[in-house]
């Protein structure tokens, strides 16, 4: 028997759903303007290709088998989506996308999302901006639940994806105002013996990168407090709960002033985080490049000056991408 990757087409599903509504193949044939043998053949082909019976033919009107009930539920969604395609395609003639789905990491929310949402209104009738972890966004764009995302670019860049650089920033120490300068690994180790370390959750890429770096420095730190959003971590440090490792954009996202936290260079090897826009290649025209340029401008003109004003030593550490 010939194997089929997809065991039905949309027309067959439409026939199947009409039978579900009408109760008989004869009435379905009249409604759709087809012959009854054509209706029977369409259902027989689905049943043969799936290896399941869809209808209980021993009752009148026809009853659905458990497999038929599952197909009816899923087929209704598929047909509804398919019927929207032509209107959506016609909408693009106006130069706008009907729907644009954008994912972003939390450290970009305050930095660019409000302005980006207003900017994207000119490109799409409906804009969905979704916060989430980089790992979940990477999966969402591969499965086309997102059109593009802005976040950490250390995800595996598959052949069908392209990226546009946004910004590169260092990992930094975040300490309460009264903490000493920690210019060496030895000083950091001594400080960490007496002051609790506040972590990012290991669910986050930032958290995993920080943990790996600290282990390389020989710092095995006990578990005390753990957060998965920048504001909570920065606020905990500002409250005097301990010290942390973060990034300038994460602290900026927290909107906590320089009077409440200190940002210091991280002793040891210099490690950085790169944020990029990632989208499918050769899709959406020039829109990904245009969104990336808009985002870079926001970072350069709004965020970087605010960070540098609060922490001047970071002036040469924040690198805006070039495309």
State which percent range the strand residues make up. 15-25%
CATH level-1 class of the largest domain: Alpha Beta
Output the CATH topology of the largest domain: D-Maltodextrin-Binding Protein, domain 2
Could you say how many structural domains there are in total? 3
- Shape descriptor: elongated
Mean pLDDT over the full residue set: 88
Largest sheet: 6 strands, mixed
Query: H/E series, N to C?
Result: HHHEEHEHEHEEEHEHEHEHEEHE
CATH architecture of the largest domain: 3-Layer(aba) Sandwich
Helix content percent band: 40-55%
Task: Trace the largest sheet across and list its strands.
Answer: 4-3-5-12-6-13
Separation, N- and C-terminal Cα atoms? 52 Å
How many helical elements?
11
**From the helix content, strand content and strand pairing, which structural class follows?**
alpha/beta
Flag low-confidence runs. none
Explain what you see.
The structure is a single chain. This protein is an alpha/beta fold and 323 residues long. It folds into 3 domains: 10-91, Winged helix-like DNA-binding domain superfamily/Winged helix DNA-binding domain (Arc Repressor Mutant, subunit A, Orthogonal Bundle); 95-162 and 279-310, 3-Layer(aba) Sandwich (D-Maltodextrin-Binding Protein, domain 2); 172-270, Periplasmic binding protein-like II (D-Maltodextrin-Binding Protein, domain 2, 3-Layer(aba) Sandwich). Helix content is 44%, strand content 20%. The protein is built from 11 helices and 13 strands. The chain has a 6-stranded mixed β-sheet, with helices on both faces. A hairpin with a 6-residue loop joins strand 1 (55-56) and strand 2. The chain is elongated and about 85 Å long. 31% of the residues are buried. The model has no long low-confidence stretch (mean pLDDT 88).
């Amino acid at each position: 028997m010939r194997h089929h990757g997809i065991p039905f087409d949309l027309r067959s599903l439409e026939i199947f759903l009409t039978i579900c509504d009408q109760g008989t193949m004869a009435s379905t044939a009249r409604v759709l303007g087809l012959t009854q043998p054509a209706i029977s053949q369409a259902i027989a082909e689905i049943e043969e290709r799936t290896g399941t019976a869809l209808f209980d033919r021993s009752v009148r009107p026809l009853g659905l088998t458990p497999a038929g009930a599952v197909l009816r539920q899923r087929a209704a969604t598929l047909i509804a989506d398919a019927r929207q395609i032509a209107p959506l395609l016609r909408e693009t003639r106006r130069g706008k996308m009907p729907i644009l789905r954008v994912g972003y990491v939390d450290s970009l929310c305050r930095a660019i999302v409000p302005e980006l949402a207003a900017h994207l209104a000119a490109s799409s009738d409906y804009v969905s901006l979704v916060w989430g972890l980089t790992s979940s966004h990477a999966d969402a764009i591969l499965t086309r639940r997102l059109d593009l995302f802005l976040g950490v670019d250390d995800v595996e860049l598959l052949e069908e994806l392209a990226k546009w650089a946004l910004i590169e920033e260092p990992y930094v120490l975040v300490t309460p105002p009264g903490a000493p300068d920690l210019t060496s690994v030895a000083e950091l180790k001594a400080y960490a013996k007496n002051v609790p370390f506040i972590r990012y959750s290991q669910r986050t890429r930032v958290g995993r990168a920080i943990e790996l770096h600290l282990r390389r420095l020989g710092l095995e730190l006990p578990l005390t407090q753990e957060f998965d959003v920048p504001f909570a971590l920065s606020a905990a440090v500002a409250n005097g709960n301990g010290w942390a490792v973060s990034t300038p954009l994460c602290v900026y996202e927290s909107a906590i002033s320089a009077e409440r936290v200190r940002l210091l260079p991280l002793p040891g090897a210099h490690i950085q985080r790169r944020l990029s826009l990632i989208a499918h290649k050769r899709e959406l025209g020039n829109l990904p490049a245009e969104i990336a340029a808009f985002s870079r401008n926001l970072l350069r003109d709004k965020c970087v000056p605010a960070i540098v004003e609060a922490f001047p030593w970071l002036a040469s550490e924040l690198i805006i991408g070039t495309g």
